[in-house]
Amino acid sequence: MQIDWPAEFDAWLDDLEARVEKGEDHAKQVLILVTAALKHLQELKEPPTRDTETATLRWVRQSKRYLLWRVSHPYRPGVAVRLICWFPPDADTVVVALFAGDKARIGDVFYNSVGARADGLIDQWKREAMRGRA
């Protein structure tokens, strides 16, 4: 799969990389996990379905307008990165990585806002993609 993302995710990733450059250990752990999650998405042969979800790639039941997925990792003390993504139905070779969050710091509240945040970010990505095609 090819991976694409909106500008907001790009800015978040740039900030994370800058914090790693400054020597922040927690940021380094998060970057390692995000990189592994992106690699997992890239290696997928097809979009997941609700019947094929795994411990690593699960359907986000709190999603609103779009079918969302979260990529997670095995337990690590102090860090719980969740990468939220969407597989556009008309482009089965592209995955849109929307945002990542460290659930370890905010707990299950993270999922309470996933649907609303994702709707806006998917709409933003669609606008950005349309501008790129114009």
List keywords for this structure.
134 residues; alpha+beta; five-stranded mixed sheet; 5 strands; 46% helix
Strand order of the largest sheet: 1-5-4-3-2
Strand content: 15-25%
Radius of gyration: 14 Å
Count of helical segments?
5
Largest sheet: 5 strands, mixed
Q: Structural class from helices and strands?
A: alpha+beta
Q: What's the total number of strands? A: 5
Protein architecture, described:
The chain has helices spanning 7-21, 25-42, 103-106, 109-112, 114-133; strands at 2-4, 57-59, 68-71, 81-86, 94-102. The protein has 134 residues and is α+β, with helices and mostly antiparallel strands. It has a five-stranded mixed beta sheet. The chain is globular. The two termini are 24 Å apart. The model has no long low-confidence stretch (mean pLDDT 83).
Summarize the structure in short.
The chain is of the alpha+beta class. It has helices at 7-21, 25-42, 103-106, 109-112, 114-133; strands spanning 2-4, 57-59, 68-71, 81-86, 94-102.
SSE blueprint and pairings:
Blueprint: E1 2-4, H1 7-21, H2 25-42, E2 57-59, E3 68-71, E4 81-86, E5 94-102, H3 103-106, H4 109-112, H5 114-133
Parallel strand pairs: 1-5
Antiparallel strand pairs: 2-3, 3-4, 4-5
